[in-house]
Write a structure and sequence with these properties.
Blueprint (H helix, E strand, L loop, with lengths): L3 H13 L14 E5 L2 E6 L7 E6 L13 H12 L3 E5 L18 H18 L12 E8 L1 H6 L2 H5 L7 E9 L6 E2 L2 E2 L10 E5 L9 H13 L4 E5 L7 H10 L6 H13 L3 E2 L2 E2 L13 H4 L7 H16 L10 H15 L12
Parallel strand pairs: 3-4, 3-5, 5-6, 6-9, 9-10
Antiparallel strand pairs: 1-2, 2-4, 7-8, 11-12
């Protein structure tokens, strides 16, 4: 459990500087904790916690990646500016690739139980004196990307009535994920009327996993159940020397202009890029052959981290299966979450009972 003095430092830095690099290189400050055996990464913004975003990343990503990669950093900055507390978990039960388990997979129930205990431990720690940060029931916005979206889509039902009066799930966001309710465009189960308001971010270029048809199927089922729901389609993005430099700088990575220009020319020669448009799936093109062009004179982060950020930038520009966000999403989720909180029996309760 983290001493309260550390939380005060987190609050001050999160509010005072929205773009900075600390000693380990993360552009967003986070505090790592081990809660009930779960690696947990926390950022508290504000003098109290009223809304908390609970994050579950996709395969080959851990909790700390939310605070270190360009697209995620932009997303979290917007949340922090709105005084939303942020907590990200690393899957405590996986097969080496950090994928979150589906409901029909081994370790699913064990993983949900571990996370439930970790979340309760965190919320309880935020109630401690001398200055409790939690004084009423916290509204939880669950965010799941890819396999994280499949996993997190089951938590509203599993956690219902298990969070005591400490918190309630008030919104859910699925990013490039069909959720656990849809498989290959087929609806496996109709969500109930008590499912939280849901946002769905997808990429139309994906025609297999989180396809537009799969998203429309789940969206229609939510509307049929009377659940507030909205979908956002993400289009491909331009990739130029200027946009690449800007994206890497978001993650605290500074590359020489000449090196970036040579890298862009190499991508063009490889057939990946043409006139600022990614024309082939980066996962199918050996673009890593040209990465050495960027390494000379680069500042910030390890080589591995630079390459992972670069991979994300290329995949986001192609826009088939990568984390990304529409500018409207957070405000929509916050509006829906606040509306759910007002309807909660714990709304405006002066204090939260101890565990």
């Amino acid at each position: 459990m983290v001493p309260r003095v550390i939380y005060k430092i987190m609050v001050h830095l999160a509010l005072g500087t929205m773009m900075f690099t600390i000693s380990t290189g993360q552009p967003i400050l986070m505090e790592q904790q081990d809660l009930s055996g779960v690696k947990t990464f926390v950022n508290i913004s504000g003098e109290s916690v009223k809304t908390m975003m609970v994050l579950f990343h996709g395969c080959n990503n851990q909790g700390h990646d939310w605070f270190q990669k360009p697209e995620e950093i932009v997303f979290l900055h917007k949340a922090i500016l709105r005084k939303i507390a942020v907590v990200a978990f690393t899957n405590p039960r996986h097969r080496g690739n950090f994928c979150w388990p589906s409901p029909d997979e081994e370790y699913f129930l064990e993983a949900t139980d571990l996370l439930h205990r970790a979340l309760l431990e965190l919320l309880d720690s935020l109630k401690k004196p001398p200055k409790p940060l939690v004084v009423s029931s916290v509204s939880l916005i669950l965010v799941g990307a890819s396999s994280g979206g499949i996993f997190a889509s089951r938590l509203p039902a599993i956690w219902r009535n298990k969070l005591l009066n400490l918190a309630q799930v008030t919104a859910f966001l699925s990013v490039v994920s069909p959720t656990s309710f849809v498989r290959k465009t087929q609806l496996l189960e109709q969500p109930g009327a008590d499912f939280p308001p849901t946002g769905l971010v997808y990429m139309p270029r994906d025609t297999t996993f989180a396809s537009e048809e799969a998203i429309e199927t789940f969206l229609g089922s939510l509307h049929q159940a009377g659940v507030a729901a909205k979908a956002w389609a993400l289009a491909p993005q331009q990739l130029t020397a200027e946009t690449l430099i800007a994206s890497l700088q978001i993650a605290g990575i500074f590359v020489e202009d000449k090196a970036v220009q040579k890298f862009i020319e190499a991508l063009t020669d490889l057939g990946l890029l043409m006139d600022g448009e990614v024309i082939e799936d980066p996962r199918r093109i050996p673009w890593r052959r040209a990465v050495a062009l960027l390494d000379a004179g680069v500042q910030g982060h390890s080589r591995q981290h630079r390459h992972r950020c670069l991979e994300e930038v290329l995949n986001r520009a192609w826009a088939q299966h990568e984390f990304g966000m529409d500018a409207e999403v957070i405000d929509w989720l916050l509006y829906q979450s606040n509306a759910q909180g007002i309807r909660s029996p714990f709304h405006n309760k002066e204090s939260v009972d101890s565990l």
